[in-house]
Amino acid sequence: MKQSDAQRAWRARHKNHIAKYMVAYNLRNREVIAAGKVVSNRRRELYQRVRAQLKLGGKCVRCGFDHDYRALQIDHIAGGGSRRRLKHDPIKDILAGNTKKYQLLCANCNWIKRYEMNEVYCARS
Ligand SMILES: [Zn+2]
């Protein structure tokens, strides 16, 4: 469906409202999303990310955070995620059933792990 100018303008004015709605929508429809029933093409990518997150347990493996999917990140257990991402898509990998290499971390725990694994590179070094 193509958006009209009026629709586009409305969406631009109500960005925050739409973001909140999307979070609530995804929380309400976790089971539908997990079952892979995609409601609209536009949301397929987002749903795939949420489905991959649910396959990994749906919460941070370190602290248990599960309040907002936007703060959950797919982590390569062995490290080096940012280099590997160039070659393949972890979300497709996970949805295909290859979950062993990955874990779900919240943004805070992921950064702490990066420091622990010495994966924080300083621009000045
Ligand atoms: Zn955490």
How is this structure best summarized?
The protein has helices at residues 5-13, 15-28, 30-34, 44-55, 81-84, 90-95, 107-116, and strands spanning 72-76, 102-106. It has a two-stranded antiparallel ribbon. The longest helix has 14 residues, at 15-28.
Outline the secondary-structure elements.
Elements: H1 5-13, H2 15-28, H3 30-34, H4 44-55, E1 72-76, H5 81-84, H6 90-95, E2 102-106, H7 107-116
Antiparallel strand pairs: 1-2
The structure holds zinc ion (ZN).
Residues 60, 62-63, 65, 105-106, 108-109 line the site of zinc ion.
Structure notes:
This protein has 125 residues and is mainly alpha-helical. The chain has one domain (5-116). The protein is 48% helix and 8% strand. It has 7 helices and 2 strands, in the order ααααβααβα. A two-stranded antiparallel sheet has the order 1-2. The longest helix is centred in the N-terminal third of the chain and has 14 residues, at 15-28. The radius of gyration is 17 Å and the shape is globular. The mean pLDDT is 83.
The SS-based structural class is mainly alpha
The 3D shape can be described as globular
Number of separate strands: 2
The pLDDT mean sits at 83
The percent of residues in helical segments reads 40-55%
Percent of residues in beta strands? 5-15%
Features:
7 helices; mainly alpha; binds zinc ion; 125 residues; two-stranded antiparallel sheet
